[in-house]
């Protein structure tokens, strides 16, 4: 079963040039059962005939969606077996995890899924974990983040590679994938939650993108993908500058290991606003604030502390507190004795 | 006739902190006759009672829209007279200018209008030219640019200040302005072209923004304005880096005055992609390419010249040609002898 050169060689190219995959690498493919990850699995299987790549597959059951989720899990296991791939399956109760940790169901499911995939990759001896996001997912993501109020890092969309996670389909349109699955008569599972209009992402897909395509730009997905790629290059430069500035500022006011982060207010104010905000974000991350829960309002709150000329404090996600004390910005979890 | 403190003091604040206006400055207000610039004129008049500001007003007739445009011109003249402001009026034939220079009607009108305003400002001894763009115009602009495929500089929207041009209403919603005009019973002119759905901007206003507000984010305009402000800070840092890199690269390979720009390919390739693209854009501008007509495809065309290891050339807007010759990128208008 050979796919046309164009689509598989595009994915092969992305693996090498975008995802940092090298001959001999092990790749764990996350199969949801939907068309994208199913196709990714077939395509990687075909590529592995040409390169030496070690493949394994994994499926995670979130403990939601009832019988449909059970069907997806069985489908993923069968697919892996038919392709002769080692298979890892995991299961958790995402609703309970969400309740326990005060997360949204989506956040809880994501946290559990990524944790499982990292463990499965370790078990499989895999260097990379391949996810099935497409160019359409990227366009939706950019619009979602724009509408939620992301800054540059968010508008850069999802990356081809972050840590062990790679997305070899990010340059491929969903329509190409569906056409290819159809042509090859390869089965996959439909996920009914993908059309539930209560989900913001589904409204972007079913209402917003069609309107934009019809009335504003027939190639809107391609345009958004190109913009995201350019913005990711921009963010990379600013992020590097901010990391260098953060190291410099931390060295000027070193924190005992595990102690609060202390940065001189004058040093922060000497940075350009774009760098200062990123240094604050890095410092908050170092102090233990969960980055995914930080929004622009939190960073602007810290800016306000810096801008006014007196002591004050604000509370941030993850139990992190930002305090201004004299000439320092102090970031810590829980209470810190005033004299420390 | 005193307006409530909130709206006028917000504009006063923007004048000082965002637009760099100082006591004693002269400001030329561009009046189209529409609600925004009419309100701006009244607000500045009120502020000028408190600060020492010298005000003048100007109106430009584009030679389009027939009697409605004549009505607007008469309205602007009356408004200026009623407020006791020196008044400058100008008129041109934008359609003829567009035909003569191969511009769109919108581009031609803009070029003529800005040229007239600069001359009028010189005549009035004005330090700044105030334009009536609002927070709603900014939100529309960000969406328009996103849909047209702008990169970071474009997504930063329109600035509070660029050269002599300032936009003191950029933090004010159009609804506030209309409510205030209504409350004060101040007259203004309606522009029918603002509802013509053939204009992309009008479709953004009448179709896209209402959909986004209703189904995605009730405060979408505020969100887009905040994002644009953050992105403008990001762009400022990258633009500074690119200007420094361009100077460095130009010094390494100086061009005779008026001669072609020559940059070493190896030097360009040593820069991060985000900086390299901006250096190319600065170099194209220095070579005479009109920035407003450069799109991402042009910059990516130059990137492709740099990426492949052989000579080649591409033609760009404004009669500028980019050539790769051995180890140099050469940018020039018209022909350059091979030996030069």
Structural account:
- Chains A, B: It catalyses: cytidine(34) in tRNA(Ile2) + L-lysine + ATP = lysidine(34) in tRNA(Ile2) + AMP + diphosphate + H(+).
- Chains A, B: It comes from Dissulfurirhabdus thermomarina.
- Chains A, B: This is tRNA(Ile)-lysidine synthetase.
- 2 copies of one chain form a homodimer.
- With 340 residues, chain A is of the alpha/beta class.
- Chain A has 2 domains: 5-226, 3-Layer(aba) Sandwich (Rossmann fold); 256-333, Uridine Diphospho-n-acetylenolpyruvylglucosamine Reductase, domain 3 (2-Layer Sandwich), CATH 3.30.465.60.
- Chain A has 13 helices and 10 strands.
- A 6-stranded mixed sheet of chain A has the order 3-2-1-4-6-5, with helices on both faces. The first copy, chain A, has a 4-stranded antiparallel sheet with strand order 7-10-9-8.
- In chain A, α6 packs across α9 and α10 packs across α12 (273-286).
- The radius of gyration of chain A is 23 Å and the shape is globular.
- Chains A and B meet through α6, α9, α10 and α12 of A and α6, α9, α10 and α12 of B.
């Amino acid at each position: 079963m050979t796919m046309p050169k164009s689509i598989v060689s595009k994915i092969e190219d992305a693996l090498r040039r975008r995802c940092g995959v090298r001959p001999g690498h092990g790749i764990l493919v996350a199969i949801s059962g939907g068309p994208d990850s199913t196709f990714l699995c077939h395509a990687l299987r075909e590529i592995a005939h040409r390169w030496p790549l070690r493949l394994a597959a994994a499926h995670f059951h979130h403990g939601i969606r009832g019988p449909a989720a059970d069907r997806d899990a069985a489908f993923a296991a069968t697919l892996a077996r038919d392709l002769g791939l080692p298979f890892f399956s995991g299961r958790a109760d995402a609703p309970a995890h969400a309740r326990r940790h005060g997360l949204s169901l989506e956040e809880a499911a994501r946290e559990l899924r990524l944790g499982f995939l990292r463990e499965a990759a370790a078990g499989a001896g895999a260097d990379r974990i391949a996810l099935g996001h497409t160019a359409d997912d990227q366009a939706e993501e950019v619009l979602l983040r724009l509408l939620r109020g992301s800054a540059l890092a968010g508008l850069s969309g999802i990356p081809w590679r972050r840590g062990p996670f790679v997305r070899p389909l990010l340059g491929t349109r969903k329509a190409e994938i569906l056409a290819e699955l159809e042509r090859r008569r390869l089965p996959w599972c439909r996920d009914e939650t993908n059309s539930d209009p209560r989900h913001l992402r589904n409204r972007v897909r079913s209402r917003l993108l069609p309107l934009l395509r019809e009335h504003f730009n027939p190639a809107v997905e391609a345009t958004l993908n190109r913009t995201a790629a350019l913005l990711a290059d921009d963010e990379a430069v600013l992020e590097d500058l901010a990391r260098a500035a953060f190291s410099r500022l931390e060295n000027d006011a070193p924190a005992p290991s595990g102690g609060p982060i202390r940065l001189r207010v004058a040093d922060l104010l000497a940075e350009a606003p774009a760098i200062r905000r990123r240094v604050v974000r890095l410092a908050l991350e170092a102090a233990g604030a969960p980055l995914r829960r930080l929004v622009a309002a939190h960073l602007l709150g810290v800016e306000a502390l810096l801008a006014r000329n007196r002591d004050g404090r604000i509370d941030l996600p993850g139990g992190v507190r930002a305090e201004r004390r004299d000439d320092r910005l102090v970031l810590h979890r829980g209470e810190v004795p005033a004299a420390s």
